[in-house]
Amino acid sequence: MQFSQEDFEKAKEQVNLLQDEPSDDIKLKLYALYKQATVGSCNIPKPSMLDFVNKAKWDAWNSLGSMTQDNARQSYIELVSSLVPAEPSPVNEIPPGSKYETLEVTTKDNITKIMLNRPKRKNAISVKMYNEIMKALEEAANDDSTITVLTGNGDYYCSGNDLSNFTQISPGGMEESAKNSAELLKKFVQHFIDFPKPLIAVVNGPAVGISVTLLGLFDIVYATDQATFHTPFSNLGQSPEGCSSYTFPKIMGLTKATEMLLFNKKLTAAEACSQGLVAEVFPDSTFQKEVWARLKAYANLPKKTLAVSKQLIRNMEKEKLYEVNSQECECLMERWLSEECMQAVMSFMQKKSKL
Amino acid sequence: MQFSQEDFEKAKEQVNLLQDEPSDDIKLKLYALYKQATVGSCNIPKPSMLDFVNKAKWDAWNSLGSMTQDNARQSYIELVSSLVPAEPSPVNEIPPGSKYETLEVTTKDNITKIMLNRPKRKNAISVKMYNEIMKALEEAANDDSTITVLTGNGDYYCSGNDLSNFTQISPGGMEESAKNSAELLKKFVQHFIDFPKPLIAVVNGPAVGISVTLLGLFDIVYATDQATFHTPFSNLGQSPEGCSSYTFPKIMGLTKATEMLLFNKKLTAAEACSQGLVAEVFPDSTFQKEVWARLKAYANLPKKTLAVSKQLIRNMEKEKLYEVNSQECECLMERWLSEECMQAVMSFMQKKSKL
Amino acid sequence: MQFSQEDFEKAKEQVNLLQDEPSDDIKLKLYALYKQATVGSCNIPKPSMLDFVNKAKWDAWNSLGSMTQDNARQSYIELVSSLVPAEPSPVNEIPPGSKYETLEVTTKDNITKIMLNRPKRKNAISVKMYNEIMKALEEAANDDSTITVLTGNGDYYCSGNDLSNFTQISPGGMEESAKNSAELLKKFVQHFIDFPKPLIAVVNGPAVGISVTLLGLFDIVYATDQATFHTPFSNLGQSPEGCSSYTFPKIMGLTKATEMLLFNKKLTAAEACSQGLVAEVFPDSTFQKEVWARLKAYANLPKKTLAVSKQLIRNMEKEKLYEVNSQECECLMERWLSEECMQAVMSFMQKKSKL
């Protein structure tokens, strides 16, 4: 089947309208094919090792070698059409009129439920989602609910920071990008430190990265037996955040915390429970039913008493948590600008793009 | 069988001589029958919701409806006679000449043993017992013993704060009462923070409320497998004390501590042990024998060395514990004066008085 | 068999050439027999209780009663000859040219391995070994390795402080000795607090005393199922060190920490793991293989990232750890000069010398 230039232009437009953001490897593939189709074989100098985003793009383009522009155009069109969903995405995923794009937020039975809602991206946290979670927490703090619950839609609880956040370099360059990211992260974590009501995580599947480290700031964590807990920071040349450098050693002792935070050990739900990160593990088949029955009972307890008791416990270490959050973000900012981190992220992305 | 007015007067006197203080529901019943017998049907206006003691009394009286004065007198006499023990209570419970009414304190084998001794009230801590425990700790701190043990007489270790303490409103009104209670509590907890020798809890049965939260301040906790650990504060509109808002998250991690302190989770002895609140659990049948053999061995170790080592560990967080104790008592005082707490306590007492 | 005076002189010389330092009880026996052989029955006044080294020597000599000088000489020669090894000790224990006498230090695969190397003394830490460990840590901190490992040669990980350190009273008397020991200890522990890279303990067998308490300062602890963890301080009238009075309650909760640090409870490897002191326990048969495979993988992670993450976690409590170390050493210094401690050490040594 032969495609026209018109098909190509149409495909180009469809990319911008995709409901689900493609993964990083797909994006690199799209970039490479588009360049090959419009420019021909890669004809620009190889970027420096430190300029890791452009290096990754260059690698993708260059890997197409001498593919003809026609073949590239055709591959591009085919790839795009495979990304466009055959059916419109089910409307029940996001309630009509919802003010959130990446979350579904509902309040019922004295419980405000914040559900991460990018199931096709395994609920990876994009910049948009960071901002929406903060907004949802601010609203939950002030609404009439007694407790607030964070959970994920689909198989994953959350796959962590969306690595595509890394590819959005601000005009001020790498340093400004790193600074902005660190500030966003700091503000984000602070929302969890300051949250004034009982905050409960319902971990419905695998949790990765910052969605794990933040658990130390939740008042209760319940998990399905299908959940896992993984913080592969060192692999990516990065240091821990979410106050985990303080909360994890406090919860599970230094030696088990170090295995996770420095050496990428992935915990099963049972291990996370015996190490004190999770309060209780439920069989996946009855998880939602059992947990929500329990949460409804909790939400009937005297509301102010619960808030006051939570704050009594939290206030004792609030100053410490602020300090930890600052130090962690500063440390991460330095990491992001380090060659070790750049090479680690680049090698990770290249591994993924070798489909 | 018909009772005379003389029988009624005699019953009235017997009430004041009862060796064991009746429970709150019995007291309300006695009050109601006495009023019905002497005044007739309830004829006073319903007290305000906030005046919760008088409201409870009014409810009890009012619940008797149009019962005749004769029937009320008869019921009163029968109730009192059921409370008077057939036999004099065994003298071995409190050694003759003991200076404590609510405790039995003995020193033997380098061990001072403080036994809560109100078994018929499940060793609930009355105001008198609060004061006697403080006195006993002061004496144990200065005697020749090497270690000090706290335990309970009978099936319970301790059922927590005696709720009848709530009904003793001081002349200065609710606020003064709350302030006095908070000051008593603060002084009481401070005795545990400051205790200079190894302090060991021998938990011989269920433990409730403050008898649980204080365990975080003991150097060792041993428990029978019949023990349970329950802190139903939120049910009663109250916040945690005994430094548990600091010690419990430190011992078992925030998520498991919150389940107990905010959401009333009752732990088995095995759970308390795996969460680090209890050092070891023993089968009930051999509990006393095994534990006391071990304690006798402990008490033969060099006395000053043990005291110095305990203080080395404790002094590192003493200032923190003082601060926590203050904040908890202030928080509780506010709770006691809150409508949420009053309603919760009242509803609890009414449930109990519906025999 | 009869021995000549020449044999006796030769035996005397051999004692000074022994490759392995004899145990304390053997040394006391040698002293006693030598005195009995050269002077006759004990003829000096009994030293005071406080002068515990001389008291121990006097006891040993005096216990020989009226043994003849000839018999004493013969026993002395026999004892010495039993201490001289038949074969020269295997040279592979200490690599030729090693600058360490008590350690074997190697760097390979990005790992610096510091192995305690006095297997015949169960890797007890002599004053020399204290100094060599500090030197080895300083070098490991600055070399190219990614992680540093401490382990023991032979069946033991480490049997703790070499009690013969106690018998080296400095010319300034007991007080100066105690002060010097406390200063050495403080400097030693500080090397662990300050160590800048991931520090991992590979506990290959029983661990005693300071080798246990220091584990709270390691980033990861792996153990064979043959390991045990024992801190019998109170038995010897001593208080805990190595920052364990802070790290142990933090890791395992106060009640389980007190059982170890005050009441000499010895933990199995499985118990140490469930209490959070050990990250994972391995079957002894595969211990070395499994652990080193894992460590090699760890050592391939980005080096700076690991160091930065470790320091992020450690720096949060560094000031606290310095303070704890100071207080512990001061406390121990007082203990060492206390009668309780002197009597406890003496009674321990006498028990050992009653062969």
From TrEMBL, chains A, B, C:
InterPro entries per the UniProt record, alphabetical = Acyl-CoA-binding_prot_CS, Acyl-CoA-binding_protein, Acyl-CoA-binding_sf, ClpP/crotonase-like_dom_sf, ECH/Chromodomain_protein, Enoyl-CoA_hydra/iso, Enoyl-CoA_hydra_C, FERM/acyl-CoA-bd_prot_sf
Q: Where in the cell is it found?
A: Peroxisome
What are the alphabetically sorted keywords of the record? Isomerase, Peroxisome
Recorded hits in Gene3D superfamilies, A to Z, give:
1.20.80.10, 2-enoyl-CoA Hydratase, Chain A, domain 1, Lyase 2-enoyl-coa Hydratase, Chain A, domain 2
List the record's Gene Ontology CC terms alphabetically.
mitochondrion; peroxisome
The GO terms describing molecular function are: delta(3)-delta(2)-enoyl-CoA isomerase activity; fatty-acyl-CoA binding
On whether Isomerase is a keyword of this UniProt record, the answer is yes
Annotated ACB domain residues: 4-89
Mind telling me which PROSITE patterns this protein's record contains?
Answer: ACB_1, ACB_2
| Main localization category | other
Name this polypeptide is given: Enoyl-CoA delta isomerase 2, mitochondrial isoform X2
Which organism is this entry from? Answer: Notechis scutatus (mainland tiger snake)
Q: Which gene encodes it?
A: ECI2
